Amino acid sequence: MKRYDIFPEPIGDYIAGRTQMDFEYTASDHSKRKLTAFMYYPSDSSERKTASAYMFPEVYEMLHEQPLVTEYLKEKNFFSIDIKTHCYDDLSLSGKEKRYPVLFYVCGGGGSPEWGTAICTDLASLGYVVVSIGHQNSTMYKRKDGKLLNVSKDFSDVIMAFSEDPEMVALAGKMKMRPDDETAIEMCRNVLTLPIINQLTRYSEQQAEDVRYVADYLHKLDSGELKSIFHDRLLLDIGMGIVGHSYGGPTAGVVCRDDDRFTCGVGLDSGAFGLLDSDLNKPFLLLFSEPNYYMNAIIGANNSMETYYFTVNRAAHLDYCDIVFTGVDEELRGTRDAVEMRNLVTDYTKTFFDHYILQKAARVESLSYDGVDLIKKTSNK
User: Which InterPro entries match (predicted)?
Assistant: First the structure.
């Protein structure tokens, strides 16, 4: 297994800046939420700064404190944080354009906002401002004020209960490669009507509320109500995009469904928790490894806008995030070349957002990667 001590060079021409912000607010369920976010953005120069550290060591150490990590797993190394990035803290925002479009990135459950460093840096180098949030209870992170927040026991218990649910185990045993649409939709509906799904949905909706709060905050930054380098620099009136990996994918779907400020969304090897009878009414792209079609087939069945399903062969679940480069356990990796995997994930994501946010002509159907197939495109207009 090849090891990487540095991420690949960013795909775009901009230098990627990064800054961290903390947020606190009272959610609709009256809980107090303490969040953080890394904002990646286009810059013209590294200003001779040293590249940003990948992940705080304290955050990495928290992984082994999560209830989901068993004693057996505690003896294993999943990934390394000893890798160099290509982003730089607190640079000036590029002056090449007056305003820059905005995306959100949502990491998988139990992960950290840094797990999307590769794709967020790529998208920033291509001219997007990208916000990666640390969500209280469902992710692990260190706030700028130094406070550490780990995954809660309640969230861990819900994930474990879902994975061990007898009905879910029985359904998973019936999931085969490349099912017909009717079978996949029925299976997805059966999964999403399991009682345990209600608890998983609660966290997806909580994360979506976090995203909406930070989106409100960005409007204040752009208006100048709050002082920052983003005053009058964010291209918000054309709509924002959101991409989520794994458990972050349903969050992206909920945000698209509930917030018209978001134009479109992407799910990376994700599911449809909370989206059983939802019309997203937004273009949505799903990039996944089979047999995951069963877990998200209902999205396209209900969506009145375009839904794209692309399968990726020879890829493992964690290949869709930074672990494609930081992983040190072969069991976590697929067999596809890591750089090629990164290229295709960034390319499909960027092309999709370019088309639906920036109105560029290029479309995801025109992309060609070995072993990546468009199995379905729906539109229920």
Answer: AB_hydrolase_fold
- Residue ranges in the chain whose pLDDT is less than 50: 71-72
Write out the E strands in 13-99: 15-26, 32-43, 87-89
Task: Establish if 1 belongs to a structural domain.
Answer: no
- Tell me how far the alpha carbon of residue 183 is from its chain's centroid: 27
Is residue 200, in this structure, part of any structural domain at all?
A: yes
What number of helices (H) and strands (E) belong to the chain?
Answer: 11, 13
CATH of the domain at 260: 3.40.50.1820
**Left (φ > 0), alpha (ψ -120 to 50) or beta: where does 294 sit?**
alpha
C-alpha to C-alpha distance for 53 and 277, rounded to whole angstroms: 42
Please name every residue paired with 19 in a beta bridge, in sequence order, or none if there are none. Answer: 39
Q: Cα angle at 292 between 78 and 70, to 5 degrees?
A: 30
Q: What's the pLDDT score for residue 72?
A: 45
CA distances from 327 to 81, 249, 289 (A): 9, 21, 18
Residue 174: the pLDDT is 93
Number of folded domains that form the chain? 1
What is d(CA 203, CA 251) in angstroms, rounded to the nearest whole number? 9
Q: CA 263: distance to chain centroid?
A: 16
Residue 116: which of 201, 200, 7 has the closest Cα?
A: 7
CA distance 195 to 192: 8
**Per-residue pLDDT at 76:** 63
DSSP element (H, E) containing 129: strand 129-134
* Residue range(s) defining the domain that contains residue 105: 15-378
**Rounded to two decimals, what is the model's pTM?**
0.96
Classify 202 as helix, strand or coil: helix
Distance CA(343)–CA(346), nearest Å, equals 5
C-alpha 136/C-alpha 118 separation (Å) is 22
**Partners of residue 243 on adjacent β-strands:** 105, 266
Are the C-beta atoms of 36 and 132 separated by less than 8 Å? no
Amino acid identity, residue 346?
T
In a domain, 3, yes or no: no
Task: To the nearest 10°, report the CA torsion of 268, 270, 276, 279.
Answer: 0
Q: Answer whether 120's CB lies under 8 Å from 105's CB.
A: yes
